[in-house]
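BACKBONE GEOMETRY TOKENS:
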Amino acid sequence: MVEIDWPSYARVYDHFSSEEYAPLVHDFYGWILDRLDEREIEPATIIEIGCGTGLFAAKLAEWYPDATLHLADKNAPMLDVARARLAPTQAEPDAEAETQGGAARLRFHETDADRFLASLPDGGADAVVFCRSWYLVADPPAAARAALRALRPGGMLFLYDPLTTYDVPAVETFFTVREPARWPLFRAALLDFNAGVAAGRYRLYSRDELTALWTAAGGAVGTYESHAPVGNAHRMCVEKR
């Protein structure tokens, strides 16, 4: 396992997740919005598993200002950054705010994906999002069933995940020159991911594996798109039957 300075990593994460360095991630955000619009879903409750520093949650708070957002992540330093980012949009938890809405209602959950999913009530959410977090799930079949169980009928689940390990040597020179201070922190996380896949701590999935998994859990697999070979990621949406 590679040693990671998580508080320092949390401070550079947004930089390497910017549209300049991670355009496909930002495209995923808009892709979710388009899928919800196509179904004419105006979500009242959205769950994001692995919310990280709250990059996507900030957009959700802007797009759906009356929605309740449940943001889960087991990484405390990352979740601290999310809290700080979203604090200006947090409604005061009083009766009037709960009734009238207004600012996005935020609920932060410092826990791992499996535990959080198992705790969710049935049928309470309109959308569930896994952005670069499904590979962390320890019990995929149980997690898939719990995630779909948490959705209302017709609710949608969105997943964006790596396809392969990262070719760190291929980008080493570029980032060493371009980001000499930040790159070592981000590089450690990429190496940890690669080591985790090799050791079986993290799991990568093919399209067929994801399709079989979500179908067995009771979902209807919708759009699937792979960004290979241009990008090391794929995305899928699943609808609750």
Q: What stands out?
A: The chain has ten helices and seven strands. The CA atoms of residues 6 and 214 lie 32 Å apart. The two ends are 40 Å apart (CA to CA).
